[in-house]
Amino acid sequence: MWSEARHQKIRMLLQRHERITTEDAVRELGVSRETVRRDFLELEALGLLQRVHGGAVHLSDEPPIDKRNTIHIAAKKAIVRAAAQRLRTPVTLFMDAGSTTTLLARELAQLSGLTLITNSLSAAACFSESPGNPDNQIIILPGVLNTALSSTSGASTILQIQTFRADIALLSPVAVNARQGAASFLHDEALIARAMSEGAAETWILADHSKIGAASRETYCPAERIDRLFCNSQARQAEGFEALRAKVGEVVLA
């Protein structure tokens, strides 16, 4: 069995069982323990599993947006209030899809003088639900619908982003640290966030304490290119916080 086929089989087993032992993999794949260990190492390097004593566990994607909306909610609300208070209108904004940016959109819906360009259907809906301000312009980026994230993605999304120039990109990563910068687990999300960051005069990152010092699969904005990092005060205790603060333009603690 070729390595690609083995890797696919291992991932299928992990999706089904969440955890497999080395012996399970040896039996299912019909290969040696050394081959299985090497496959585990290669898949872990790609961020597709985590090795544990005696086997491996499934390293899942981010949960759906409705689940993420219930995690660290107080911290996220404090962060988005701080970011909204720093905005000066009129302003053109990029915004990616995520639980934190959806909360931010609810906050921004109370303001006027905004042009918001986003791939997040949830963020756009916040403006339609608000009695709000008719002078706000909300541009929803085209693309393939991702129902789990309530967002669009794909080549057409990237191409459309590249036709705009924004003052600020408002992005919420899976992880952010001094070495890697802001990162995403999903390739499509990383491509969108990268295009938004590159197309904006400034990049503002919104990340609660659980994301500070963490790492993920794909970098989209180096720490040195983060103009403002918004996080809650608990982030001070996160490992790697000081190293990250030394690299970004400004840290705003909410």
Provide an overview of this structure.
With 254 residues, this protein is an alpha/beta fold. It contains ten helices and 15 strands. It has helices spanning 3-17, 22-29, 33-45, 65-68, 73-86, 99-108, 121-129, 155-161, 187-198, 241-247, and strands spanning 19-21, 49-52, 55-58, 91-95, 114-118, 137-140, 144-146, 151-153, 166-171, 175-177, 181-184, 200-206, 218-221, 228-231, 251-253. The strands form four sheets. Strands 6-5-4-9-12-14-15 form a seven-stranded parallel beta sheet, with helices on both faces. Strands 1-3-2 form a three-stranded antiparallel beta sheet. It has a three-stranded antiparallel beta sheet with strand order 10-11-13. α2 crosses α3 (33-45). It is elongated and about 65 Å long. The relative contact order is 0.12. The mean pLDDT is 89.
Descriptive tags:
alpha/beta, three-stranded antiparallel beta sheet, single chain, seven-stranded parallel beta sheet, elongated, 254 residues, 10 helices
Quick synopsis:
The protein has helices at 3-17, 22-29, 33-45, 65-68, 73-86, 99-108, 121-129, 155-161, 187-198, 241-247; strands spanning 19-21, 49-52, 55-58, 91-95, 114-118, 137-140, 144-146, 151-153, 166-171, 175-177, 181-184, 200-206, 218-221, 228-231, 251-253. It is of the alpha/beta class and 254 residues long.
